[in-house]
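Journal club prep — side note

Before the paper discussion, L.F. wants everyone to see what a predicted structure for a comparable chain looks like in token form. Sequence:
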Amino acid sequence: MGGFARRWWVVLGVALAVGAPAQAGWLDRLKGALGKAAPGQAGEAPAGLSTEEITAGLREALIEAARRAAQRASAPGGFLDDPRIHVPLPERLEKAAALARRFGLGGQADAFEETLNRAAERAAAEAFPVLAEAVRGLTFEDVQAVWQGGETAATDYLRRTTRDALYARFLPVVRQAASEVGVTRAYQRLAGRPEIASYVAGSDLDLDHYVTEKALDGLFTLVAEEERRIRTDPVARSTDLLRRVFGAL
């Protein structure tokens, strides 16, 4: 390993140690650590940790965050009952839904919205394998980018590297789930009412695409939350490796 790379691991340890949001001046301390890394200590990982342990700890933290997020999102009510990731009616249907409620058809609008969320929950169960595969492919440069970033830098990395793959995997699952939970039927019952039909006539809304995008948005919201917890809350470090790496640093 070259001199710069060895010195980086010293800096990485310091960066992890001061990464909590409550500690200000993160970048200043990072720059200071880079300048103070002693040549004789350049090959040593902080707190007695090897570079392999630090890398493994990072990967495990990201995999654990993805696992928890996928489990939460795919649980019954994971989308429907969580206001942060709840899938609303598509914007172009909001007026139609408001009109439906005026005519006493609010139940049909609510039933349609529920099917959107149920479809998203089923699709979320497919998320973890794709996320885990991306995490296992982390390079040394990825490690630097993740830990030089903010408190959701890992989530940002996953979003950038896995969203296309997740979309491709989600779409057929959403399509199947939408059929099973009756998204199209619920929409047709609502849109087919004479009082509502004129408000949705000619609509080219792709419900499968809409649910897939909303499912991904919700999933990454939860991954970001889990990342923050692992970075800042010792209770969230559920394995020996996470406790060792994040606790010691």
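L.F.'s comment for the group: Confidence is low (pLDDT under 50) at residues 2-45. Keep this in mind when we get to the figures.
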